[in-house]
């Protein structure tokens, strides 16, 4: 359905095809120039209505579960990789039929499933996730190398690689630059380099935010090339998610009411931080709103009219603040949260029965296409 911008339903995730293509062209340039393979991490971006575009650039997907693997297999095609902290027994058989690459988090999990892989009747390349115990990610919630991390094998726990292991996988970055990767790679090489001659591939995980405007793409390419020169037999795989969906769209919402307690005004919108933008509460971070500025300074907050944005659930903490607006907000006005495609869309829930935002695309020619609308059935089907 083609609509004018003002007719886009609210709330709605809106992806801009032009921005997605810009990201994909840059990622494609990196993989071609550096001689690496880049696949899409579905945990960050699973908007399958765009897969026909993405598959022109990327050769496959990586999944964290059977459901994601099926989505990659059925909707994207190409290579299907998987990594999970542990694989449920009732899902593994199906996973084996779908995947080309499976990375295991522990020796136990590999030992448990290796005979099923041998009997699969097709080639599956197996790998182990390693923990280089080096990560520059400050927030422990997103740092897989924190003390006690369950994610990946530490060097001391591998004396030799078990038979059948063809690759190693590390994931220690989150919205990082290539210099963090360079330092990480050094730690990986120091701790696990002794195994490189016995493997065929090394997966550098995700977290490479190469589409952010200040990312030094040439430095990344140089780094990958230099690594490849030293280990020409190794296939280098990168599996970013955020970099694909980075700044490719927004979430439109509408002001339903304004709760006014004098100095504290709350714009109640038809979306929810808890149900639709959970990272704002979890990370936490304050989303950029079109036509508004975030005021951190308490003195300024006293002298200027600030607004909180209040979510639609009755969770007391379902709000974000404090914003000043270029134009005084009125009931019925739209509030546009920027950069809400990667991670946000895959994390939505129907908490409080709040309806899920619709999903649409602004095509390259400027036409808006509504691709999905949700309703009662979607809410009910998750329950019983
Ligand atoms: C194993 C693995 N690969 C890839 C990714 C994608 O990371 P990003 O979206 O930051 O690029 C993640 C994210 O958590 C991950 O855990």
Structure description:
- The protein is of the alpha/beta class and 384 residues long.
- 27% of the residues lie in helices and 24% in strands.
- The protein is built from 11 helices and 20 strands.
- The strands form 2 sheets. Strands 1, 2, 13, 14, 15, 16, 17, 18, 19 and 20 form a 10-stranded mixed β-sheet that branches. Strands 3, 4, 5, 6, 7, 8, 9, 10, 11 and 12 form a 10-stranded parallel β-sheet that branches.
- Helix 6 (178-192) packs parallel to helix 7.
- The structure holds pyridoxal-5'-phosphate (PLP).
- The site of pyridoxal-5'-phosphate has 14 residues, from helix 8.
| CATH class placement of the largest domain | Alpha Beta
Report helical residue fraction.
Answer: 25-40%
- Low-pLDDT runs: none
Number of helices: 11
Strands, total number = 20
Mean residue pLDDT: 96
Q: Into which percentage range does the β-strand content fall?
A: 15-25%
SS-based structural class? alpha/beta
Please tell me the total number of domains: 2
The small molecules bound here are: pyridoxal-5'-phosphate
Radius of gyration: 22 Å
Q: What's the architecture of the largest domain in CATH terms?
A: Alpha-Beta Barrel
| N- to C-terminal distance | 32 Å
| Overall body shape | globular
By CATH, the superfamily of the largest domain comes out as Alanine racemase
CATH fold-level assignment of the largest domain: TIM Barrel
Please outline the major beta sheet. 10 strands, mixed
């Amino acid at each position: 359905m083609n609509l004018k911008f003002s007719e886009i339903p609210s709330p709605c995730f809106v992806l801009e095809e032009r921005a997605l293509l810009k990201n994909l062209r840059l990622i494609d340039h990196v993989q071609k120039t550096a001689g690496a393979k880049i696949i899409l991490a579905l945990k960050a971006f699973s908007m399958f209505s765009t897969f026909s575009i993405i598959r022109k650039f990327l050769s496959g997907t990586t999944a964290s579960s059977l459901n994601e693997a099926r989505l990659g297999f059925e909707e994207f095609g190409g290579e299907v990789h998987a990594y999970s902290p542990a694989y449920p027994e009732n899902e593994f058989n199906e996973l084996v039929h779908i995947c080309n690459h499976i990375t295991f988090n522990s020796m136990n999990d590999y030992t448990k499933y290796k005979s099923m892989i041998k009997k699969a009747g097709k080639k599956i390349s197996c790998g182990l996730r390693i923990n280089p115990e080096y990560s520059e990610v400050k927030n422990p919630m997103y740092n897989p190398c924190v003390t006690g991390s369950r994610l990946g094998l530490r060097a001391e726990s591998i004396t030799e690689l078990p038979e059948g292991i063809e690759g190693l996988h590390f994931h220690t970055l989150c919205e990082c630059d290539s210099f963090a990767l360079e330092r990480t790679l050094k730690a990986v090489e120091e701790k696990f380099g002794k195994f490189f001659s016995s493997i065929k591939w090394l997966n550098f995980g995700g977290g490479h935010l190469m589409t952010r405007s200040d990312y030094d793409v040439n430095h990344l390419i140089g780094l990958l090339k230099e690594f490849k020169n030293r280990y020409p037999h190794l296939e280098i795989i990168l599996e970013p998610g955020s970099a694909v969906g980075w700044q490719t769209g927004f979430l439109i919402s509408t002001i339903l009411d304004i709760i006014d307690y004098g100095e504290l005004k709350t714009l109640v919108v038809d979306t929810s931080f808890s149900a639709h933008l959970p990272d704002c509460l979890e990370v936490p971070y304050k989303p950029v709103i079109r036509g508004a500025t975030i005021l951190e300074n308490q003195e300024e907050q006293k002298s200027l009219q600030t607004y909180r944005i209040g979510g639609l659930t009755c969770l007391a903490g379902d709000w974000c603040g404090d914003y000043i607006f270029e134009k005084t907000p009125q009931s019925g006005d739209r509030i546009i949260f920027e950069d809400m495609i990667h991670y946000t869309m895959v994390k939505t829930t129907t908490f409080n029965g709040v309806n899920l935002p619709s999903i649409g695309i602004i095509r390259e020619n400027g036409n808006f296409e509504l691709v999905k609308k949700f309703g009662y059935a979607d809410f009910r089907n998750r329950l019983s």
